[in-house]
Amino acid sequence: MKNLYADRPNGYLESIQKGLAAVRTYDLRVSRGIGSRDEQIARLKNELKTADAIVVGAGAGLSTAAGLTYSGERFERYFFDFARKYQIKDIYSGGFYPFPDEETLWAWWARHIYYNRYIDAPKPVYPQLLKLLDGKDYFVITTNVDHQFQRAGFDKKRLFYTQGDYGLFQSVDPKVRETFDNEAWTMQAMAAQGFVRDDNGIFQVPDSGTISMRLQKELIPTAPNGDPVTMNLRSDDTFVEDEGWHRASAAYSDFLRRHKNLHVLYLEIGVGMNTPVIIKYPFWQMTAANEKAVYACLNYGEAYCPKQIEKQAICLDGDVGEIIDAMM
Known about the structure:
Blueprint lengths: L10 H15 L4 E2 L5 H14 L2 E6 L1 H6 L7 H6 L1 H7 L4 H4 L7 H16 L7 H8 L5 E5 L5 H4 L7 E3 L2 E8 L7 E3 L1 H10 L3 E2 L5 E2 L24 E5 L9 H16 L5 E6 L10 H9 L5 E6 L5 E2 L6 E5 L2 H8 L1
Parallel strand pairs: 2-3, 2-10, 3-4, 10-11, 11-13
Antiparallel strand pairs: 1-12, 5-6, 5-9, 7-8
């Protein structure tokens, strides 16, 4: 298949290449940062003020800190019927469940999409982060697919969602390299299951507790050409990197290039080890390559850096929301 975007910079591929280079470079010795927690917070505050540019790398831990949890109270409130019938334990695992038919599958996905894409996060972590970046030259690369950066007011031109978007469908035919907005369908499918809007316009389970786990056959989503659809989420090589994806990828590459030798703060937030070659390892590599750069890792239980860059690093272990709140 011809690559229509071969002439554009590919920030995603470049990041993975940097990440793989970092794997070959660093040994197993790690550091938790230098100085006390208060000293590292003070240092991060100063870096946010003085850096020429800030590259934010965000993972699932940021959305978890913002209250978009996939288990517990949210799951039990909105997916209790699926949990009871199919013994599904959380929203994430439900996305892989082999439902008996398309009507049930898409009833699940309507809820999965709605409660993780079309409502604001319960806690103000994303708006607070935006305030910390106010007036700064920043760019965000994220593996999250919940659109919370844009909902919080981040500049769309400064965002790169590498792994897809809950708000988009793609055709099951990999030759169709387009994506399709699913907001109107999601709202219709939520209402069809019996959810009702509260005073804030948010769909809730009605007082009767009666909701359906199946959609009518005519509500099963399709592409404009009639093809069946699937979610635009990266799982294999059928993932559609559409025009918007390539535009954001090129913008990320350009941002890194323009600030390569300046005082850059690589601010990693809530990034785990599922896909470290996209954000974590490239941030390590770019910090090591620039003596003016600083790497900051905010994470619950996994705040560390390679020993080789510890003098350029800030490592803050704990709830990301509480750390950002302390920064305010």
